[in-house]
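Subject line: Sequence and fold of a protein, written as structure tokens
Body of memo: The sequence and its backbone structure tokens, given next.
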Amino acid sequence: MSTPAMVRPRPVHRAADLLAAYLPGSFFYSSATGSLLADGVHAPVRAGHGSRAAAVSEALDAAAVHGVEDPVVVGAIGFRPDAEASLVVPAVVRRAGAPDGSGPAGAPASAKWSITPRPEPEVYADGVRRALELIGAGELDKVVLARCLEVTADQPVPVPALLSRLVRLNPAAHAFAVDVSAPGDPAPRALVGASPELLVSRRGTEVVANPLAGSLPRVADEAENRRRVAALLASAKDRAEHAHVSAQVAEVLGRFCVDLDAPAEPSVIGTPTMWHLSTRITGRLADPTDPGSSALALAEALHPTPAVCGVPVDRARAAIAELEPEDRGYYSGLVGWSDLQGDGEWVVTIRSAEVCDRTVRLFAGAGIVAGSDPAAELAETSAKFRTLLRALGLEGTA
């Protein structure tokens, strides 16, 4: 009589193990739903500038045919319609639970830094004034203007240490590190961040989106924080800005979903550095077998939301191209993963930076609507830079 073959249990990892195992060139992603570490490249996704979701679906089908067990695609897509993308079917994927925030954040790299704002703060404020003129003339309802900090160290910036600090300091965020190296880069380039904003996730028939818009900086004094939360909820300007975003997200998801739940009133969520008006929108897919309702297809249908672009979208994009001197690259694009079943999770690439050797390029933006104040919008971008600056040991320098 033959002995039954022993079934080897699948390895169980801890989120901390995956974080410790991250090396430059890997893909790391963690959120409240779990952690994922991907290594190696089974196949790149040749997406061009068309539908990345269609290319991803083809790549996943091909990987399954070639014997890849439970294939996934991981990576990032830039902001513009013609932006670069870095998407691959990895060779090895490990999963774990969500980070729990345990363990010390560790000290930032001991380096000497120089910081160059692009553009200068007064130029950014002038751009806000020009955007307000467009809004006053009726050409726009809202536009999101971003600015950049180029931070340069006297030694190469260690991406694994930066990622580890971001996860430890922001355990509830959607943390990520993606290799986005491109021809012509002087060294490998990594996109690293801790985004608070879920663009869309899909699990079976369940779809969730969590748009954010309307923000105030968080401070050390808890009484003042309570005042700021109340002020944010009472602010007509911030609520109007948020309504643009949540209405658009609900309208798009309504094309794919039944039983859509979009709360009429926003709530407030906090990060270690900011308070945001938030609406959690949920729905059930009408046809989960439709390739056009995969996680990435939904993300492409939603992107760009008014939280990172504006209303109307085409005119806002044109204003961004006109008023922002720096190309956003991957900032305010998408980062995440999708699997063969169409499930996945994609977040908005904010609170992020691109790291190449000794240089870190950070971006932060603010939503400009009627009633915006240039000085306040400049201050909001400075507050949003704090997530990355804190992880670099440079908080207070924006």
Remarks:
- The chain is about 30% helix and 30% strand.
- The first strand starts at residue 27 and ends at 31.
- The first helix runs from residue 15 to 21.
